[in-house]
Every structure is written in C-alpha cells, then in structure tokens.
Specification:
The chain is α/β, with parallel strands linked by helices. It folds into four domains: about 200 residues, Rossmann fold (3-Layer(aba) Sandwich), CATH 3.40.50; about 280 residues, pyruvate-formate lyase- activating enzyme, CATH 3.80.30.20; about 120 residues, Pseudouridine synthase I, catalytic domain, N-terminal subdomain (Alpha-Beta Plaits, 2-Layer Sandwich), CATH 3.30.70; about 110 residues, Alpha-Beta Plaits, CATH 3.30.70. The chain has 26 helices and 26 strands. The protein binds iron/sulfur cluster (SF4). Iron/sulfur cluster binds next to loops. Iron/sulfur cluster (SF4) binds next to loops.
C-alpha cells in the first residue's frame, strides 16, 4: 500500500470502507481478465453493501470466465478531501487500481439523491463527466437501477443505461466489450453495438422516438444469485438476504417498482431456503431475510422460513421487510424466533379505506388491526406503521386518521405487551414515472412541513413516536423523478458548488440546489405540478414500463375507487408487460410444504445451548495489511462471524439475543499491524487446538489469520487482565527527526511528563512508567516495550509524547506490534 494512502486511511473516519478483502470478495487476478468492470455505488460502503442489486451483479460477472468485477463506493467527505490533497485517483477495493483503468464503470442509480455523488466519483476517478467528453482510452460508463426508468436528468453523464433487469444484460455487455477489445473496435462503434440490445439506452445514439424497451429475465429461479455473498464489514450487514421474488402485481397505483419490475417472478421455496442456508453458513451471519416487493405474497414464506430455521447449521433469526398488513400470518411470526423481541413494520400507506381503495391497496382497517394484534401477541414490542403524505385527493380524514390508527394500535399493544411502542413514519408522495399517478401533482415543501408539524403535535405521549422524511429531500426527489435532460446542467453545477450525499441529513444543503436551479434559469417548483392528459413525459420515448393506455385507465379507475385485481392470482389487466412469445409471464413459486427438502450439504447444527461446561480456547491471530485498517469492532465482528462459519462447537450467551462467547484483547489502533492479537472463544466440546486453527482458515478477511490456539485452564484470567507488556517496532525510515532524544530520555529513567488529551479532557501521565525500553536494534528498527498500565495509552499517544509530535503525525508512523508478554505465564513472539 502506498504510504500516502496508508497515511490517509489512518486519518479518515471508518477506514474499513476503503480496504476490501472481506470473506467472499473476489480474488480473481487482474491480468487474467479480458474485461474489467468496476461496479460503483454512489453512497457509502455500508449502504452499498446492503444493496442486493450490487451483490447480484458482482456475482453474475465474476462467475464468467474472462470478466472481472470489483467495487467502489462514494468516499466520505474526509476521504474525498484527502484524495484531492494527495492528487490520487479513486481506486477499487479489490485490486486498488484507479477506476479509470477499468474497461467498464457500472453505476447503480438506486435513488435520485445520489446524483451529485455520481459526478464526484467520476471526477475523482479522472473520467470526464459527460459522455461526449470521453475518448477512446476512457472506460464505458454504464448506469442501471430503479432511476434508469427515468434516466433523462443524468443521461448526458452516461455512455449507456440499462433499463430493467441488469444481471444478464450486463454480462452480455461485458462480452460485447471483450469482443470489441479483441478486434480494436472504435468507441462509437462499440456504443452502436450496445445500443442494439433491448433495454440498453445509449443517449448519444438513440434519438427522439427510438424505442429502447426493457431488459428482462424470464425466470429468476435460473438467474445468477450469490449463495456465498461478501461478508461485509459493519453491523448493518448482519443479514443474509435472498431475493425470493421480482416484480409485484398487486397494482398499488403509486408504486413505481411494482409496475416497472413486472411480471411477477418467484423463486421456489427449496431454492430460496437452500441459498439462505449456504449464505448463512459461508458468512456466519446471525440474521437472514427473504426479500421481495411484497414478500408476504410469496406463498412459500412461512414454510421457507421454518425450513431455514430447521436446516441451517447455525442459530439464526429471520427479519422481514415491511409487509402488507393482511399478509402477516402466525407461522411467519413464529418463524422469526428471537428477532420477535424487536420491531415489526407494516405499511398501511394511507389512513382511510377510501384512500386505500384509491391507491388500490385495498385492505381494510380490520385487516390492519388484526395484523397488529398478531404482531404484539407474537412477542414484538414495537409496531412501525408507514404512511404517505400528500396522496392525490388527500383530505382531513386521511391526516386525522393517522393519529386515530396509531392510537388504536397502541391500545391493542397495551393489551398484549408490557411496554408497547407504535412508531409512525411518513414520507411525501412523489409521482413516479411509469405509474398511474405520474400525471398527479406533488405537494409543496410548505404543505409537507405543515402536515409534519401537525403530526408532531398529535403523535405524542407514552408509547407513540413519529418520524418523518426531510421535506426538502422529497422535493428534490420529485423534481428529478419527473425532469428531463435539461436538469443535467443543474446537477453538474450543484456538484461543483459542493453538493454531496444529498440523502444524508448532515450533508444535504438545499441552498446549493436552489442556487444551481437559479443559475441555470430553471424553476424547480414547476416540476411538481399535475400534468394534463396527452402530456409528453421525458421517459415516454423509451418504451419501458407498462403501456400508457393501461396507466391512464388505472388512473381513471382510481378516481372511481375501482379495484384492479392482482394478475398473479386474478385476471390480466393488460398492462402490456408480459410477452408469452418469449416466455415472459407471471411465475408463481411452486407449491411449498413445510417438509420442503433443503439441498444444502451442511453438517448438523453445531452450536450449543449455553451449556454449563465450556472449554475456553485462546487464539492468536494476525491483523496485517488491509485488516490493519479494521477498527476493533469490525475485527471482533469478523472473528465472531468467522467462528460461526467455521463449524466449531460454539457456546452461546443466554438471553434474547444469544451471541458467540468471545472476548478479544486490548484494542489495537487502526493502522497498526500485529501478528500477536488474541481472543478467547468458548466451545461446548473439547477439541484439538490445531482443529480450531484449521477450521478458521479462509473464514476471516484478508490479513486476519488464526495462527495458533491453546486450551486455557478454567480459572485463567481474561486477556485484558493477563497482559504485562507489549512490544512495538518502527522501521528506521519511518522515525521522525529527533527520535534519539526520546531514546536518551527513557534510558535515563527520569520522569517523562505527557498530557494525554481525549475529547478535550487532559490527563497528566509519566511516560517513563509506560515505556520500559526504547532502543534501536540492528540500526534498522526501533523497538518499544510498553507496560500495560492504567490509564491506558494508545501506542499513537505514546509516540506523540515521546517524539513531541502532533497526534496526526503520530498516527501516520507505521508501527508493528510484535510481541505480548503475559503477567505470569507464557510469551508469544511473532515469527
Ligand atoms: S400483462 Fe397482464 S398478467 Fe402480465 S403483468 Fe401485466 S397485467 Fe399482469
């Protein structure tokens, strides 16, 4: 790793975002690939790694010979600043190559408020922002994801845009690029070739009136899906997620995803459960989830949940995304295990039956209250209710109804739970492309704020909570959802003025966007207005999504409060998506029974039930290279998941959320490498320590390796209480000027006062009591022996004091921890 990048990583927040090397990440060689694709997610690592679409694409490409897919995410503001100061390009996580060296850059457009981040990434990657500015040596920049259904505001920034299901089309595009590279095809001819694929929009080639259509996979049962996904760092990634259905035919008239991802295609229970088991066993995750737009409609849900609980080798809880209120069944609640102590989300969307008929949600208040009863009776303490504000025709009854429903749900909770909570969340209705409500207007920022303020006043009191979505963000989302390519200039200007992470409250600044709109001469408020019949939308020319006739018919039916049947189980309403000639039709999952066989080839469940007798093993592990930049919590998480995935007979703690019984030694500062880190883990069987080492191989991130293990006596003190001294080393070349003075001072055994400052609090310490020895060996390495004393000092604080340098400079010194000496027993030196 280049020393300046290392120095940058030790100075930014959450450096794990930039290091890669997770279990399950791609280890293909750069030179072995003919086409290299960098999959870019324009938000943080934690958000991007929760995105199933990214995981599917990464897997779909990397299983193909000749294709290599790596990842990059938006660097947080401190990292962006640091890269610019170093004049270093943004790099991929896997090979750390600059992004502009890839053949293809594939950008996920998950939501409109990432558009400024897209430009920040291109700029940091040294790729010209606009397609027309790129030349032969630049990567082909491709977008995909939900926002591609109205790509016009960002179309000038992309060479090609995939509309629809991306996994098969992206692989096809990868091979077209490979063939073009082999034959030396010019960029414009390559784009021409890509534009001929159904569902691929090439803005520089497709002119007005061109029909692009959609990319579709007929059957998700046979489409690529990662059974051994990346075990991402950070706790938000605790869940093994399996997509069980794509598309939704319920026909909620506001829901873009429900229309554009039609028809309904479902996975079989056996395959979904098998993939979930494999995913849990390979990542060691403690939760799993079945994902779909309306997962409660997946008939196999209850049996498949139960099947995973029965078949998984590991103790695991199910979590589910929000459910339609009437689709919650007792078996589903029962299968959710210990997770039931948490919260459950239901999405009534609107507070009156009239409005739910208008939006074709169709369920009744009684459906909702019956579900809430089941949730509280099932052991959940919190029910989260999700509503939209500003739906077309919304009146007093709908707004007042939110409080009425919340209070009634709370009353149900009080009957069934000691401390129930009802949390209401609202967001503003945004009229989305390709929905029957695309002609409707969106309420203004002021109207949203009025409604939110009213709910803040009424949804108060014990057990009631209210959360709301930022009104300015909804406004911007509405503008970009409906706008055309004239908005590209606004996005570029706002980016240049500093807009970043617009979906984050702490970063979003509407004044930047207001300035950019004003300077481009665009009135953003006009985009919120209702549209007349016959209005030509920017996305109409693409020919994607349901037919205009169908959408208009549905809009009229909404006004008549007429229900439209779910075509997966009722009659077809001729939306224009299915194409039986190519096998594109609704596919319900095969019938599922509770004894559905799961094909996972795994041994029986390994973990114990908090046994009375446990065997404590102390492992020594390394934390070097990339892993040196994992924080203590990330490293501990990686160990916990690695142990779970290892098949060792783990003992678990007791209580609602049983955890692996593991305790690590003192935290090592981020950036410090070590081959002498220790952790204790408890097993319910005595086994050969070598088996512990062997079973942990390949279960930890790159740079973390279990080196040895020992069975500890029952009454042996914890690691924290056993450490006497630690040895660190610094290479001569990395020492600051004047280091000799510190060596002389320590050798003199005189007091060496130092003020340790943390969070503006200062403590006076004597470094001579901490540093037993400071000596140069072989004229190449400075060795430092540090006693474990209280108050504890980090090695960077000790260096700061010894060398009289700033905290930042001290963190930049490359330090290795090479030995630990124990208070009474053994000493283990790094080899
Ligand atoms: S074409 Fe008919 S069956 Fe197919 S998704 Fe549309 S409404 Fe449903």
């Amino acid at each position: 790793m280049r020393s300046e990048i290392r120095n940058l990583l030790v100075s930014v927040a959450k450096p794990f975002r930039y290091v890669g090397g997770e279990v399950g990440s791609c280890a293909k060689g750069w030179e072995d690939a003919e086409v290299r694709i960098c999959l870019v997610f324009p938000d943080t690592y934690e958000i991007g790694m929760s995105h199933l679409g990214l995981a599917i694409l990464y897997h779909a490409m990397n299983v193909q010979e000749g294709l290599l897919a790596e990842r990059a995410f938006s660097p947080w503001l401190d990292m962006e600043r640091g890269l610019k100061e170093l004049d270093a390009p943004l790099f991929s996580l896997e090979s750390r190559r600059p992004i502009h060296e890839f053949d293809i850059v594939g950008v996920s457009l998950g939501y409109e408020l990432t558009y400024s981040n897209v430009l920040a990434i291109l700029d940091l990657a040294r790729i010209p922002l606009r397609s027309e500015q790129r030349s032969e040596g630049d990567p082909i920049v491709i977008a995909g994801g939900p926002c591609a259904f109205n790509p016009m505001p960002v179309a000038p920034f992309f060479d090609a845009i995939v509309i629809g299901d991306g996994e098969e089309r992206s692989v096809e595009m990868g091979f077209i690029v490979r063939d073009a590279k082999r034959k030396g095809v010019a960029r414009k001819d390559l784009l021409q070739r890509l534009s001929e694929l159904p569902g691929v929009y090439v803005p520089s080639i497709h002119r007005e009136g061109a029909r692009v259509g959609m990319a579709r996979i007929n059957d998700i049962e046979t489409s690529p899906f990662p059974a051994h996904p990346i075990a991402a760092f950070a706790a938000t990634q605790e869940r093994a997620a399996v997509e069980v259905a794509r598309g939704c035919t319920r026909g909620c008239r506001f829901c873009q995803a429900g229309y554009v991802y039609r028809p309904l295609r479902q996975r079989s229970a056996a395959l979904a459960a098998s993939v979930a088991c494999d995913s849990i066993s390979s990542t060691g995750k403690e939760e799993f989830s079945f994902l779909a737009l309306s997962v409660g409609d997946w008939l196999a849900l209850g049996p498949a949940l139960e099947s995973v609980q029965r078949s998984s080798t590991l103790r695991v809880n199910a979590t589910l995304p929000s459910l339609r209120v009437e689709s919650l069944t007792a078996p589903v609640i029962a299968a959710m295990g210990e997770a039931r102590s948490g919260s459950f989300t239901l999405a009534p969307e609107a507070a009156t039956e009239r409005m739910r008929a208008f939006i074709n949600k169709g369920n009744t208040d009684d459906d909702l209250f019956a579900s809430v009863e089941k949730v509280f009776a099932g052991g959940f303490s919190t029910v989260k209710l999700y509503f939209m504000l500003g739906l077309p025709g919304e009146g007093e009854a709908e707004v007042a109804g939110i409080e009425k429903i919340a209070r009634r749900c709370l009353a149900i909770g009080r009957r069934l739970h000691k401390r129930p909570t009802v949390t209401v969340s609202t967001s503003t209705f945004v009229p989305k492309a390709h929905t029957p409500f695309q002609w409707e207007g969106q309420i203004s920022i002021e109207e949203t704020l009025q409604l939110q303020n009213r709910l803040k006043r009424t949804l108060r009191g014990p057990g009631l909570e209210y959360r709301w979505h930022n009104a300015n963000m909804s406004f911007l989302e509405g503008v970009f959802s409906r706008g055309g390519s004239e908005l590209a200039g606004v996005i570029e200007l706002a980016y240049k003025k500093g807009a970043r992470f617009d979906g984050w409250d702490e970063c979003f600044d509407i004044s930047i966007w207001r300035e950019a709109f004003a300077e481009c001469g665009i009135d953003p408020e006009t985009y919120l207005a209702a549209r007349p019949d016959g209005f030509v939308f920017p996305w109409d020319c693409l020919g994607a999504g349901p037919s205009l006739d169908f959408l208009w018919r549905e809009r009229q039916r909404a006004k008549d409060l007429a229900p439209t049947e779910d075509c997966a189980v009722g009659k077809c309403s001729a939306c224009g998506i299915c194409d039986p000639k190519i096998g594109l039709v609704n596919r319900l999952a095969p019938a599922c029974h509770s004894d559905t066989p799961v094909t996972s080839q795994l041994p029986d469940r390994q973990e114990g039930q908090s046994p009375a007798t446990v065997f404590r093993y102390r492992i020594r592990f390394s934390k070097t290279g990339r892993a040196a930049f994992l924080g203590h919590l990330e490293a501990l998480d990686a160990l916990r998941r690695g142990f779970r995935a290892s098949g060792l007979p783990l003992a678990y703690s007791q209580g609602f959320h049983p955890r692996v019984r593991i305790a690590a030694g003192p935290a090592i500062p981020v950036g410090v490498e070590s081959a002498v880190e220790f952790a204790d883990v408890e097993l319910f069987e005595e086994i050969d320590p070598l088996a512990v080492v062997n079973l942990m191989q390949g279960r930890l991130p790159l740079g973390m390796v279990v080196l040895d293990a020992a069975l500890m006596p029952r009454d042996h003190p914890a690691i924290d209480d056993s450490v006497a001294r630690m040895r660190y080393e610094i290479d001569f070349a990395g020492l600051p000027a004047g280091w000799e003075r510190a060596v002389e001072a320590i050798a003199s055994h005189k007091p060496f006062p130092f003020s340790r400052v943390r969070k503006d609090k200062s403590i006076e310490v004597d470094l001579s009591e901490y540093v037993d020895e400071l000596a140069m060996s072989d004229r190449s390495v400075l060795g430092i022996h540090v006693s474990d004393r209280r108050p504890a000092l980090k090695i960077s604080e000790i260096l700061q004091g010894l060398f009289a340098i700033s905290e930042d400079d001290a963190r930049r010194i490359a330090v290795r921890k090479t030995a630990v000496e124990w208070k009474q027993q053994e000493s283990k030196d790094a080899q």
